[in-house]
């Protein structure tokens, strides 16, 4: 009976590791694909107001800049977390 309990807990650990691996690899890839599709479909020209700056630009360009700013911010946050450990 002990062998069955150990086997099932090992199976759960292995499956949770596989699920974690899939989540770490596939979820970011799916989000990137969805983001690229979203940016590609929004090509209108828009007026951007930020503080005292008023600029006209393509929406895809604005979305790309904001996405890159988010990636850079996430990279800095991740790098700082690694330094703390």
UniProtKB/TrEMBL annotation:
Pfam family for this entry, one: LapA_dom
Keyword Cytoplasm: no
Alphabetized UniProt keyword annotations: Cell membrane, Membrane, Transmembrane, Transmembrane helix
InterPro entries, A to Z: LapA_dom (IPR010445)
Lineage: superkingdom: Bacteria
Lipopolysaccharide assembly protein A domain boundaries: 41-78
Any one of the GO CC terms: plasma membrane
Membrane-crossing segments per the record: 21-40, 52-77
UniProt-recorded name of the protein: Lipopolysaccharide assembly protein A domain-containing protein
Organism: Gordonia sputi NBRC 100414
